[in-house]
């Protein structure tokens, strides 16, 4: 399987700082970022109703199709090493390690309260047409019918005022559609965060520890170069002056603690019991601001 040049898989729930992190990697020599090719990962499994993929779904045919897509993208960008950051991969670590065993992983987590406050507005926005078209081009034509009903619901339904939210946004965990019928939206998003973090950590515990590291978003933005150096050492990359200058100019802490002004007291009360066990274990204190701690992994 030497046709793929040691890809880097950035694993993190939606709105967890993966875009900011991936843009840093895009500044490294011989690197290119593949921006969430979601339908590539579902090739051969597009009928699945959620994003939890286990190793048994990585059949020889599926592996071949996904790896060919990787090679195609890699060749289209001069053979550069690929970083990929599809959020749904939080629930697919066993599947991914079977498809691309040569990959190195970085798992990024963020304060669950900030995550919920950031995600809420995306559920009520119309889908992005240009991104939808780009993803359709990455999808085999025979799998298009799988995505048409969702497009009609989300795009036309929102435009005509028939629906207030998209059918789903972000990572679809098992039972999520049932939860949407019985839980408040902020509670579903909080559950989504917990399932992404807990599932990824449990799966990574079964993976060679040399293949993955974990970092909190808050620690990264508090001391970005320290963490970029750690990422580079983990992935075998060389930090150049261009990378250092990009980090100096662009990494900021502006998105920390935004939940304090975006969430209502009722919403905070609704999500706290869901988030607390996982946040406590990760070193977040729900009774005080998130402070940087030493990264683990």
Description:
This protein is an alpha/beta fold. The chain has a domain at 8-112 and 195-255 and 274-281: 3-Layer(aba) Sandwich (Rossmann fold), CATH 3.40.50.300. 49% of the residues lie in helices and 8% in strands. Strands 2-3-1-4-5 form a five-stranded parallel β-sheet, sandwiched between helices. Helix 5 packs across helix 9 (185-204) and helix 9 (185-204) packs parallel to helix 14. It is globular and about 50 Å long.
The largest sheet, given as strand count, sense and whether it forms a barrel, is: 5 strands, parallel
Rg over C-alpha atoms, rounded to the nearest angstrom? 19 Å
**Mean pLDDT value:** 87
How many angstroms separate the termini?
Answer: 26 Å
- Helix tally? 14
**SSE class:** alpha/beta
CATH H-level superfamily of the domain at 8-112 and 195-255 and 274-281? P-loop containing nucleotide triphosphate hydrolases
Low-confidence stretches: 293-297
H/E topology pattern: EHEHHEHEHHHHHEHHHHH
Number of strands: 5
- Taking strands numbered 1, 2, ... along the chain, how are they ordered across the largest sheet? 2-3-1-4-5
What CATH calls the topology of the domain at 8-112 and 195-255 and 274-281 is: Rossmann fold
CATH architecture call of the domain at 8-112 and 195-255 and 274-281: 3-Layer(aba) Sandwich
> Can you tell me the overall shape?
globular
**Helical content band:** 40-55%
- The CATH class label of the domain at 8-112 and 195-255 and 274-281 is Alpha Beta
- Percent of sequence in beta strands: 5-15%
